[in-house]
# Entry
Amino acid sequence: MQGFIDKMRRRAGRWLDRRPVQVRAPGGMLSLSFDDFPETAWTEAGPVLAQHGVKATYYVCGGLERGENLGLPQFTAEHMRELYFGGHEVGCHTYEHVSTLTLTPADLGKSLARNALWVADRLDGHVMETFAYPFGDVALGAKSIIDMRFALGRGVRDGVNAGTEDRAALKAIGLESRRLPGYDLDALCAEAAAKDGWLMAYGHDVSDRPTPYGCTARDLERLILAARAAGLAIAPVAEGWRNLSLSRRERA
# Structure
């Protein structure tokens, strides 16, 4: 019964209390992101990103630092500092890595505030601009909290963001071994280009033998090459948002 209730709550969060925003990225855009994040999202993915001159977004939970998740060692503060000062974005993923379905709005606010302090203390006062929902669970009551604190929230609903979208729960495809066989990455990048859309992708671990939630370095490179072939700009999520905002002001 609880599973059915949670399913209905996820659907409500997806479709109700939307924060409409017009998404138009001339020529199309891709943003890569890594959630949680396992250390291989930096030690293995970082060199691939550097090789192609790409910056990504890393969604951090302070409570996972030096811990274990899905049987994998998680990032260290040193990893986080290295990537941040290398030009990548650090975004928020709650402090405890907890579904918003399990939190009251007040408790979610406390978790976000705790994570903000944890990150700022280690990144010279850095203020996180964007948020990704743990497990992709967008609780209806969470949207107003995310809306107050961040420029946008990123979910896990498949598709290219184009036209009118929900700023509190933007769509993203999963760079996950369990989901990648179902995607045509070339077609998704071509769609983003044709619609002046914003394609977001998220992953977790990166290795030759990834978990169901991770990918190989080759998978990551394949998406980057597909985006380049389609003529997409590639930017971290916060930079992508600023580019969209600039485009909207130019049209006004």
User: Anything to note?
Assistant: The CA atoms of residues 136 and 155 lie 5 Å apart. The chain is about 40% helix and 20% strand. The mean pLDDT is 92.
